[in-house]
Amino acid sequence: MDRLSATDAGFYYAESENAPLHVGSVAVFEGPAPSYGDLVRLLLSKMPQVPRYRQRVREVPLNLGRPLWVDDPHFQILYHVRHTAVPRPGGPEQLRNVAGRVLGQRLDMAKPLWEVWLVEGLEDDRWAVISKVHHCMVDGIAGTDLMQVVFDLDPNAEHTAPREWAPQRTPSGLAMVAGALTETATAPLRQLTSGPSAVTEGAKGLVGSVRAAASTLPALARQALTPVARTLTGPIGPHRRWAWADAQFDELKAARTALGGTVNDVVLTAITRGFRDLLTSRGALGADTVVRTMVPISVRKEGERGSLDNRVTAVFVDLPVGEADPVARLAAVRRQMDDYKKTLQTVDARSIIAMGDFVSPTLLALGVRASMQTGQMWCQAVTTNVPGPRVPLYLLGRRMVSAHPYVPIAGGTRISIGIFSYLNSMTFGINADFDAFPDVGVLAEGIRRGVDELVDLAGKQAATAAR
Description:
Helix content is about 40%, strand content about 25%. By secondary structure, it is α+β, with helices and mostly antiparallel strands. The strands form three sheets. The chain has a six-stranded mixed sheet, with helices on both faces. It catalyses: an acyl-CoA + a 1,2-diacyl-sn-glycerol = a triacyl-sn-glycerol + CoA.
């Protein structure tokens, strides 16, 4: 039985009527658009490489074990591949509107947890693919790997004909309960008998984690006393607004080279300007205000690329929106990220994540659902940076020209920003609660202004150094 990990199960349990927990993307391609039938046949031919696309989640009775992936005996690809269009010639605003509606709708949790939408009618003879995959199946890195499985690196790539498929029999409820109870009883024993090195490494990881937690207590105490933009958090409704901003990777690298830090530091600083503009327009900006964002960090090893699951931890970064000087904003972001890097080097994050497998499945389900319903005030946003391919991707011979990510919102955090790099571009996909963020465009435009101001400062610094 293929059981969800504790992390994957947490994302599954967190799904609710007003909090769909799927990740997604909007990819735009050069035309002409393929036929709906050609897209269906292509995806069918790729199914053997992505068996999850024919599987659904089956919960164990009474939550005595974590849910299982089982083959869907009623799988029908025509349900998962949809076809729509915008009025010609559809511009960015029309595409954002249809994408916001599609991405805001829940997946059917009783079926395989994915959808693909073919969108025709875009200007310049272009078309788009809107993709949705539940977060219990993939994290950001796995989503990128999945994209490269479904798409091609060669515009002339040949595809095999779809193959016949027969689902494996779904285990009975009794068999699922028996398997869950057996696993609960034997998992600790397997851990202890897997060898002294496993026990030793686990103990070292735990000790290192305790030390790291102790070292971060002062920072957490400071964060607890820092005034955050609490107006950004609150109840989440069923509808979404979706916007995006674009930048060139060379712009961000130039700013990094001239001003210091990493590209990710520069990106977070540009986002800080976006939130600064948003709060200023609302009259809610204070001199010491910060926007605390959760930043997921992948702990996936190189040899684990291609596996469809979640292998992430997270840090919390205070974006200094009250700071007027962009260079000082970058320094503050860089300082926090450098501190987190040092901490993560002393922590076996993978061991901490694996410890979730020992949590009672019933408590895991109850705890996740209760926390999502209660909400939180600790962080106001989610910001995740996913490196994409630096080589062109193709779908049925058509070249992908851009892709914008979609990151879900939940638990009182009413806005998320996904960052995705492809070729020389970096795109920002902004997902927000519809009622709470009628001004989401201010944030998108502010992020672009944040990039511009850092690029301008980098240019001035380079010109001064050349004199």
